[in-house]
Amino acid sequence: MFIKAFRVKNNIQVKSSEVKKLKTKLSQQYKLNEDELSILLPSKSSVQSVKATTHGEQQLIIFTVDKRPMFFEFEDRIYPTVYWLWLIPSCVPYFTTHPQVLPKLANGANLMMPGVVKEGSDRKSFGRFQKNQIVAVNLSSNASAVGVGVLALDSEDMYMSAGHGICVKMLHVFGDKLWGMEGSVTQQIPVSKPAVRQPNLNSEQDFPELGSVPSNSQPQEQNDDDSSSEDDSESQQSEGNQALNPDDILKSMFMSALKINKKELLSLLPIQVGTFYPTYVLKQKHPNGDKSVSIKETSYKKVSTFIKQMTDEGFIVVKEENKGVEKIISINYEHPELVTHIPFKVKSEDAKSEQSCHMLLTKMTELYVVNESTKKIFNALGVKDGNALDSTEIKNYVKDYVSRKKLLDPITKQALLDDVLVEICLGKRENEDPVRMSLDEIIANVNSKMDNTFEMRSQSGPLIRGGKKPIIQITIATRMGNKKVTLISNLEAYGINIAEFSKACKIGVQASTSITKTPGSNTNQFQIQGNQVRFVYSLLTETYKIAKGNISGLEFAKKDKTKKK
Q: Is Transmembrane helix tagged as a keyword (predicted)?
């Protein structure tokens, strides 16, 4: 439901009288006591009601507590978020799955029956649940909730399904747009004990841990287990000792790029080989390799040689439009090797998981909006008015436009401007003489004619988009007793984890910190004791990699004292 961005219609402060009604409704649906309600809705907290529409045009209301999405109301039912379940975990039943399944759920998949870890395989192991009952999902390695959904079947139908079909229809999962609704208060999954429901002897064969070899574990069968584990370890060791063939790895990366990006690639055809290889192939990884391989490590040595081989094997069709400019014009997705190939995506998911723990949750990317002045060139390439593109995308689209129109002189590397490019680059043609420009000049002119915006990008995609670039403001104020304090505003606009930022400041300057409301605004203001401008500036630019132009206030830093001679 929240894998893709949702649209916010309004955001309203909930009155205290409405909060009381909300508590009554929560108490009736989830049997919460007063203590639990106080944890969920503290007396001095700020409760907001956010009306939203999902990507699938579903209408709902999200309730945030101190900016953190705590629950949402959809079709007259209230559903908890993972933030709620991390505070009060016992209000809904849990279904346990393997850790390897979480990336699939985060990509929009439902929890399937084969991925459920059960206690036993008889009727009792499926409990007594009703269809559409609200449940949470956790991992066998961690009891903390990672998602919320409704049951697709009742317990009897689960038992009769023989381990096939959907178990939980996922509505919300850790890492989705609801979890990242407010970048400054996002929280990672709390580390907890392993989930209670673990595979036992009766269910391991039906539901083995994904990616592992099933084995028995009862004490009376210890000898069999030992021999089985020895065989497994020997086979794994022999596989690990086999030297990886760089040619095979590169081919695997090539096929993974085709399968993972199928929809996108088909929409881009014809696509230049020079764009396809670095953008799609080099980003792939091989399941047995720690990283992707360089073309120099293979027997091909050149990208053109490798692409020719893939063409000869029937994966793609390549056409040379100009000398040295090759384009993929067709992809054979019916190729037997491509059909049976399983792309390896776990490494990239692992990388996302590592990034999610980084102090900087988002990164600001400059974007350019297709407008009236530039729509002719982009419309011709299938890009609609109002679409926001980054500088790399613009560069690729301009190159593609010039190539399609056959405007580039291969000798001078100058492009002959057609009427569309003349209008963008020159405004009006003064005479009928042909005008030539380099690609860099054309790209610069196109960029200058487009409207500016920005996007806060995270490991899971875009979070915040707006028209004005935010500036982090650092100022100095005087408090009681002529004590100086450093004030920092607008950190939240960059998705900075305030708790981590505060910890870094405490360790770095050994000073107390606090958070207050910015006067005349709903945003928070971070305060550090003393004049710490220089330290904060260095922390933001060096650790958080925020551009210096996006920070103001360095002039308030302490002046270096010079000793008199």
A: no
Cα 397 to the chain's mean position, in Å?
A: 24
Helix/strand/coil percent split, the chain, to 5: 35, 25, 40
**b/e string for 190-202 if b means 16 or more Cβ within 10 A?**
eeeeebebebbee
Look at residue 506 in the predicted model and tell me its pLDDT.
Answer: 81
Cis peptide before 470 (omega within 30 of 0): no
Rounded CA-CA distance 149/169 in Å is 5
The confidence score (pLDDT) of residue 468 equals: 58
- Judge contact between 368 and 447, C-beta under 8 A: yes
| Residue 427 vs residue 199, higher pLDDT | 427
Per-residue pLDDT, averaged over 518-536, amounts to 82
What's at 483, amino acid-wise? Answer: K
Provide the residue ranges of all domains of the chain, joining segments of one domain with +: 1-209, 246-347, 365-465, 471-556
The pLDDT score that the predictor gives to residue 170 is 96
The CATH number for 365-465, chosen from 1.20.1090.10, 2.30.40.10, 1.10.245.10, 1.10.10.10, is 1.10.245.10
Q: Report in angstroms the alpha-carbon separations of 52 from 62, 63, 187, 408, 490.
A: 7, 11, 22, 48, 25
- Confidence (pLDDT) at 522: 63
Round to whole Å and give the CA distance between 147 and 127.
20
From CA 97, how far away is CA 114, in angstroms rounded? 9
pLDDT attached to residue 364: 52
Nearest Cα to Cα of residue 199 among 188, 213, 187: 213
Tens of pLDDT, residues 210-260: 333 333 333 333 334 443 334 443 444 334 334 458 888 889 889 989 988
Architecture of domain 1-209 in this structure: Roll (3.10)
246-347 fold: Arc Repressor Mutant, subunit A (1.10.10)
What is the DSSP secondary structure assignment for residue 542, as one 8-state letter?
A: I
The region that residue 119 occupies, defined by phi over 0 for left and psi between -120 and 50 for alpha, beta otherwise, is beta
Contact 324, 412 (CB under 8 A): no
| Cβ pair 130, 88 in contact under 8 A | no
CATH of domain 471-556: 3.30.780.10
- State the chain's mean pLDDT as an integer: 79
Dig out the tokens for 164 from the structure.
């096939």
- Calculate ∠ Cα 428-430-433, nearest 5°: 115
Q: Where are the alpha helices (DSSP H) in 261-390?
A: 262-268, 273-276, 303-312, 336-340, 346-356, 375-379
CA 349, distance to chain mean position in Å, is: 9
**pTM for this entry:** 0.41
- 392, containing H or E segment: helix 391-404
pLDDT, tens digit (0-9, with 9 covering 90-100), for 473-507: 999 988 877 889 999 988 877 777 777 788 778 87
Closest CA to 198 of 129, 122, 136, 116: 116
Distance CA 369, CA 373 (A): 10
Cα 133 to the center of its chain, rounded Å: 29
